[in-house]
Amino acid sequence: MSDQTRAQELAGEIRRLKKERHAVILAHTYQPPEIQEIADYVGDSLGLSRQAACSDAEVIVFCGVHFMAESAFILSPEKTVLLPEINAGCPMADMITAPELRQKKQELPDATVVCYVNTSAEVKAESDIACTSANAVQVVASLPEDRPILFVPDRNLGNYVAARTGREIICWEGFCGTHNRLAADDILKAKSQHPRALVLVHPECRPEVVALADTVASTTGMIRFAAGSKAREFIIDTERGILHQLRKHCPDKEFYLASEELICPNMKLTTLEKVQRALESLEPRVTVPEETRKRAERCLERMLEVT
Ligand code: 13P
Ligand code: SF4
User: Fold this and answer.
1) Which CATH class is domain 3-91+267-287?
2) 307 residues of the chain, pLDDT tens digit each
3) What are phi and psi of 114, to 5 degrees?
4) CATH node for 182-260
5) 42 forms bridges with which residues in the sheet?
6) Which of 30, 63, 94, 176 to mutate to test the pocket of ligand 2 (most atoms within 8 A of CB)?
7) How far is the CA of 262 from the centre of ligand 2 (A)?
8) Residue 104, class by beta-carbon neighbours within 10 Å (0-12 exposed, 13-18 middle, 19+ buried)?
9) Fewest CB atoms within 10 A around its CB: which of 96, 112, 155, 279?
10) Ligand 1 within 6 A of 156 CB?
């Protein structure tokens, strides 16, 4: 059997099981194309959180990484939340633990703690409000001006928000290995090859890369920008999975990845076989202990109230 026939067979089986289980499949824009194609909703972290909060399905199959499935469970604890590959984590989320954050809070007792959604449930439980790359500027702008802000764990996103809001922000020294690897030279090289292209940068990139952007946006924000722009060519500075949605939404435009290294290995661990197996066995499940869940829910709901 060819790979294509096998993929079609699996996709059909997934659709059948999805109905049987009253399930919804949510996929991040960094997922492999064949996973995006079987999803009911493809989006950025903010869109996925909103979908998880409002879905009336009994089962959520989360095609993404662990913190995303955890957020879905935090917002919808009555649902069965499945992560087809339980080892799909986010190295940036692992750069801060709850005990480390508690220690920092003791040093900064007046600080408002803003956590990027790329954090564990335990870290969210210790934070005042969450944010995603799509709403970080609005979240920080909504906070009282008389208290310092501690932003965890992404220093690049924290610095970008500080520049945009003019607020003083103390940043945790975390970063995304995929985005942080991108250098200003990669952008300059791509620009010299495609001089008419606009540069779309994710705020997880370094400040010197952000400085070269025509627009800085979350993954969904980039798709919206490209679709609404008169420009026909774009240099993309985020994980390569987004190219699938960009080409679907804008079939007449050209997209160039700023570097071939823009790949998140964890996002690529999801396969059709694993999704099919998860729907069949209703495993592996992601849950959060109730006491932690309630505190983390408050942190996520505050974010959803702001945006
Ligand atoms: P967005 O989904 O907010 O664009 O963030 C990208 C990301 O790295 C998720 O892990
Ligand atoms: Fe984490 Fe970066 Fe992968 Fe997003 S792209 S899941 S931040 S490692």
Assistant:
1) alpha beta
2) 888 899 999 999 999 999 999 999 999 999 999 999 999 999 999 899 899 989 999 999 999 999 999 999 999 999 999 999 999 999 999 999 999 999 999 999 999 999 999 999 999 999 999 999 999 999 999 999 999 999 999 999 999 999 999 999 999 999 999 999 999 999 999 999 999 999 999 999 999 999 999 999 999 999 999 999 999 999 999 999 999 999 999 999 999 999 999 999 999 999 999 999 999 999 999 999 999 999 999 999 999 999 8
3) -105, 120
4) 3.40.50.10800
5) 27
6) 176
7) 10
8) middle
9) 112
10) no
CB 299 within 8 A of CB 115: yes
Per DSSP, the three-state class of 129 is strand
For atom 3 of ligand 2, the residue with the nearest CA is: 264
Q: Which ligand is nearest to the CA of 65?
A: 2
Interval between CA 9 and ligand 1 midpoint (Å): 30
List the domain boundaries for the chain: 3-91+267-287, 95-175+292-306, 182-260
3-91+267-287 and 182-260 in the same fold: yes
Name the residue with the closest Cα to ligand 2, atom 2: 176
How far away, in angstroms, is 93 Cα from ligand 2 center? 8
Provide the residue type at 225 as one letter: F
Considering the four listed CATH numbers 3.40.50.10800, 3.40.50.10490, 3.30.497.10, 3.40.1190.10, the one that applies to the domain covering 95-175+292-306 is 3.40.50.10800
Both tokens of residue 1?
Answer: 């059997």
Measured in Å, residue 304 CA sits from the centre of ligand 1 at: 16
**Residue whose CB lies within 8 A of the most ligand 1 atoms, among 51, 68, 204, for a mutation test:** 204
Q: Tell me the chain's radius of gyration from C-alpha atoms.
A: 19
Give the strand pairing for 169-171 and 233-237: unpaired
Centre of ligand 2 from the C-alpha of residue 62, in Å: 15
